[in-house]
Amino acid sequence: MGREESTTGILGGKPSIPLDLIRLSSHLFPSSSLSLHTPTPHSITMANGDIVQQLTKLAETYPKELGGALVLLSALLFFLLNRATPRKVLDPVEWRSFTLTEKIALSHNTALYRFALPHPNDSLGLPVGQHISVMAEINGKEVMRSYTPSTLDDDKGHFDLIVKTYEKGNISRYLSLVTIGQQVKIKGPKGKFVYTRNLAPHLLMIAGGTGITPMYQIIKSSLKDAADQTKISLIYANVEENDILLRKELDDLAAGSNGRFVVYHVLNNPPAGWTQGTGFITKEIIEQHQPDGGVGSPEHGVGPKVLLCGPPPMMSAMKGHLKELGYPAPRSVSKLEDQVFLF
């Protein structure tokens, strides 16, 4: 009376593990009691609620029968709960290694590199709009380059980098030679720009090539937030139609935005029948896509924002166009409050 029977042990036929413990284990490991399985969402919910309390009660009720079994189960429970708890894995000081799990060619010289995080529930821990550093030892020297992942922290268990390989680009060439299963050293977050809901009434984005990645991250974050009312216009320049990165993703975001996001492509070498911009981004193209009412203010920190990211020659040209339209020149190191921010 008052104590539930134990199951028969495998040593000497003596009672060893109480039925209460068997039942508790079935919540943690539905597939097979007392064997190691990845916990289900149901089991984790239970664990977060009262499993520890139940283990404590069992220890008081069955001190002799449990012995080392309770210690083992407690250690196992701690391991599984720690594994299931979402973590942010970036460190701004320490270089951490991440394993390349997938490489997808996006064009003749650009690829998506997918890196695994330590656990499936982990996130990178990168504020929207910031970037990371990639480091490699090349010819005996440590070389670093900054990249903005195309993924958000909602994308658990991995992060993606979209990188264009340049013939004289040390890190881009290094990444192109990394094979599946090899590790790359990462550190971060870095950067002065952090996007938050309703940061500005309107964002005018001007991007070229892989300069699309910080824009794409911000666009995704803004559009998934129903309370964010920021309007976004993207002017995206490339050489040829096949060079347009994330085109389907951008088109899908625009189609589902109820007019809050508009994308306009400009190609140096457009195909026959191309209906959008041709040549280079001009002052007139910027003027057509800038917010209603134009500049808003020639001073930093007031009105809509312009975000720039792309090859240096293109960015120099864009600064000139924006100056002619009355926008303030971007600082040498842009700040979040700036009306014109250069990534």
Structure description:
- The longest helix is centred in the first third of the chain and has 21 residues, at 41-61.
- The protein has a six-stranded antiparallel beta sheet with strand order 6-5-8-3-4-7, with helices on one face. Strands 12-11-10-9-13-14 form a six-stranded parallel beta sheet, with helices on both faces.
- 29% of the residues are buried.
- It is 29% helix and 25% strand.
- Residues 2-15 and 29-49 have low confidence and may be disordered.
- By secondary structure, it is of the alpha/beta class.
Key structural traits:
alpha/beta, 6-stranded antiparallel beta sheet, 343 residues, Cbr1-like_FAD-bd_dom, 6-stranded parallel beta sheet, disordered N terminus, transmembrane, globular, 9 helices, transmembrane helix
Return the average pLDDT rounded to an integer. Answer: 83
In total, the number of strands is: 14
- Indicate the structural class: alpha/beta
Tally of contiguous helical segments? 9
Give the N-to-C terminal Cα separation: 72 Å
Which geometry do the CA atoms define? globular
Lateral strand order in the biggest sheet = 6-5-8-3-4-7
| Elements, N to C (H/E) | EEHHHHEEEEEHEEHEHEEHEHE
Strand content: 25-35%
Q: What does the radius of gyration come to?
A: 27 Å
Q: Summarize the amount of helix as a percent range.
A: 25-40%
Poorly predicted spans = 2-15, 29-49
Largest sheet: 6 strands, antiparallel
Keywords: FAD, Flavoprotein, Membrane, Mitochondrion, Mitochondrion outer membrane, NAD, Oxidoreductase, Transmembrane, Transmembrane helix
Organism: Papiliotrema laurentii
Catalytic activity: 2 Fe(III)-[cytochrome b5] + NADH = 2 Fe(II)-[cytochrome b5] + NAD(+) + H(+); 2 Fe(3+)-[Dph3] + NADH = 2 Fe(2+)-[Dph3] + NAD(+) + H(+)
GO cellular component, one term: mitochondrial outer membrane
